[in-house]
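Human:
I keep going back and forth on a fold encoding question. Comparing notes only helps if you start from a blank page. Show me how you would write down a chain together with its backbone fold. Write it directly below this note and I will take it from there.

Assistant:
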Amino acid sequence: MRRNNAAGRLRKPIPLYAFAGIVSIATLVLYNLPFFAYVAANNNLSRVGGLLLMASLGVVMLTLNFLMAYLVMFMLRRVGRVLLAILAVVNATAVYFIHTYSVIIDSTTIENVFNTRWSEASGFFSWGLWLTLIGLGVLPAMFCLVQPVAYGKARRLAAWCGGALALMLAVALANIGQTLWIGQHDTELGGLLQPWSYLVNMCRVVSSHRDKQAEEIKLPDGSITDDEKAVVVLVIGESARKANFQLYGYGRDTNPRLARQQGLRVYEATSCATYTTAGTKAILEPQDSGDLYEVLPNYAFRTGADVSWRTSNWGEPPIHIDEYLTDKELVAMYPDADGRYDGILFRGLRERIETSPANKVLIVLHTSASHGPNYADKYPKEMEFYKPVANNPEEGEKNIPLLVNAYDNTIRYTDSLLSALIDTLRTMDEWKSAMLFVSDHGESLGENMMFMHGLPLRLAPREQYEIPFLVWTSEGFRTYKPVATSGEPAEGELPAVIDQHYVFHSVLNLLSIQSPAYNGAYDIFEAAK
């Protein structure tokens, strides 16, 4: 009789919110202890502050896992049970490897998993792995598969999910001051967080493979209309914000060399996003679109220009040209250069341009000079003009002026690189030349306890989207359009504030590329005569 009563209790459905809560708590307790151990060992807060941080992270993780379990079960029913069971087994496997081999589940680990043969993988099987799989994987998976659930109605789904999202947002906003610390440790934290470590990184690996093979929407064919020797160097800045440029009225002399450059134009501009991938795409694409159109270097290369891409960064759209050089490859080419900083991207540019077999040359330099959170690591020590500096995010969070000092040094370093580039181009008498510097997005430096970047554009403070847009051309190359001083621009005028899409069309003009893709309204120059 008692056995029948126990079986009956097991077969009794429980509400979906209770099921999702059990799954969420089990996920936190069984699979995420390494995550909390890392947080406890690596935060520099007081004991109470550290406990509050871990409690906040725990609430966010519980809420996130609750949402996943609730939505998967409500939307997919039996398939959802199977998915949650699979996640339990994979979570157990991940925790075993984290404990046994001290790994983190990042994109490199996932890449290695995809590339591991069965003959190699079988060597990892042991009694420890089997026991972990059974205890932490199979048993929780059985619960997900057999426990009856009362799913409830859609309005209950909306109420639970809406409440969970509100709680998660409130806790995240309350801890916005920890952005710098999380930014410094994001790889380790993300690699220890189950099941999100492998779910997110699997998506990243698959997306990376897809991007490498991506076919853009081809633009209409263009043509080069003259034989004049012309070179354009487009420098894509990283996290450089307008607010800390002397050229835009900042109180410090962060641009001492550019401020003395004759012919330099300074435009009021905003970015189209607050993170690298979208900001860089906007700089290179012909129009604002969620689609992948043929980007500037690919189009110029296909049209007949000589194009070189040099990068110390990442996150650009797929680049399909013959010469794509990373900072490591440039170090191999110039072994006497210091490859730790953006200066390596500028090395040997004069020789590269003058030996080009083409009359039209486009060089794109994708820098990383002002990317946080460790700004003090982004410039040579001889460029440390503002002192003292924050040498790590914890120092910067506690003493924002030290953080600003380090950041301002990155801007001053950028100033020296850009000014030296202009000096080089100015002396190349056989070439018409131009330099454009546009940042991918801005940066928060502690204003309202916000740090770094990445907030949705509609919520982001202006420090994250007001960017520098600098242009220099050799004498007589092109005529600049006037800028409207207020209100709607008149015909032939530029608006008072431009955005990143002006790069594509302005560069086509400079390279004398005639194309149906060209839009003169987004060109800062008059049409070539």
